[in-house]
Amino acid sequence: MTVFPNAKINIGLTITGKRSDGYHNIETVLYPLKIYDVLEIIPNPDGEGLEFSISGESLAIPEEENLCVKAFRLLEERYRLPAVKMHLHKDIPSGAGLGGGSSDAAYTLRLLNDLFGLGISREGLKDYARLLGSDCAFFIDNEPVYAFGKGDDFRPVRVDLSDYFLVVVMPDLAIATARAYAGVRPRKPLFSLEAKSSNPPEEWKALVQNDFEETIFKEFPELSGIKESLYAAGALYASMSGSGAAVYGIFREKVHLPELEGDCRVFYDAG
Ligand SMILES: C[C@@](CO)(OP(=O)(O)O)[C@H](O)COP(=O)(O)OP(=O)(O)OC[C@H]1O[C@@H](n2ccc(N)nc2=O)[C@H](O)[C@@H]1O
Ligand SMILES: Nc1ncnc2c1ncn2[C@@H]1O[C@H](COP(=O)(O)OP(=O)(O)O)[C@@H](O)[C@H]1O
């Protein structure tokens, strides 16, 4: 069976404190994007365990560190899984703040559960996903949410970008999430992102900000340049997603940005 793990953006992100487990408490809105990887899992009656293969965008990690493989191992320890072949085709850029690896992991859990009738509930799948990464559980339901705590507790929000045109720009650089968190000083939120995100995107520019931008834009000024280009092209709201490096713009109308396409991957109508 083949499924299409999708990406996400963060709409606003406040880092409110450092936790005793080394993670940070955050407040953010997670919103699914129409940018996809491809994941196929089929039974492999002549094989043993997991046969994993990968194509597309290259990842500089060994197979056992791939989040799809980690998700398989997590369930393999707890359930009787038949031998499978799993193929992942990567198109979602990595180190982008688009959650591609987390989505691959969540879709692996969902697909194994469906294929082999494991009977794991939605909440059970989210609990397994939380073991694989803070972003991962979001992709089980894949609905817009206000995320808090480590970023893996959720409440539904009324954010709907389906009438807008979303552009996601990924420059040729990757940012490691742990390093991005290490550079940020936590702060108290000025207002409730949960409440403000239900205001229309036209009002977000003055209200909704991503705390990672301050430090990451200093290190990579080209990202701030991309955000300015998106505003210059008429974006109602533009921001870096999560810990970067992707920057997105929300537009009222369809746009084409050839000036950004030379140095970056540009995804149109991604919302
Ligand atoms: C920043 C966010 C915003 O949605 O996403 P990305 O930009 O990575 O997509 C998330 O918080 C990332 O989630 P995820 O990418 O799953 O991170 P994890 O694997 O859980 O953690 C990677 C590392 O980031 C740091 N980390 C992560 C989450 C958190 N609330 N506090 C942290 O300090 C920790 O150093 C951890 O070791
Ligand atoms: N299937 C996967 N796809 C992408 N990245 C993966 C995957 N498995 C493990 N990783 C690792 O996870 C990290 C990035 O995860 P990803 O969710 O794609 O990006 P981001 O944290 O920028 O949203 C990278 O260090 C990458 O090596």
UniProtKB/TrEMBL annotation:
Its EC number is 2.7.1.148. Gene3D superfamilies: 3.30.230.10, GHMP kinase, C-terminal domain. One of its GO terms (molecular function) is 4-(cytidine 5'-diphospho)-2-C-methyl-D-erythritol kinase activity. GO terms for biological process: isopentenyl diphosphate biosynthetic process, methylerythritol 4-phosphate pathway; terpenoid biosynthetic process. Catalyzes the phosphorylation of the position 2 hydroxy group of 4-diphosphocytidyl-2C-methyl-D-erythritol. This is 4-diphosphocytidyl-2-C-methyl-D-erythritol kinase. Residues 66-139 form the GHMP kinase N-terminal domain.
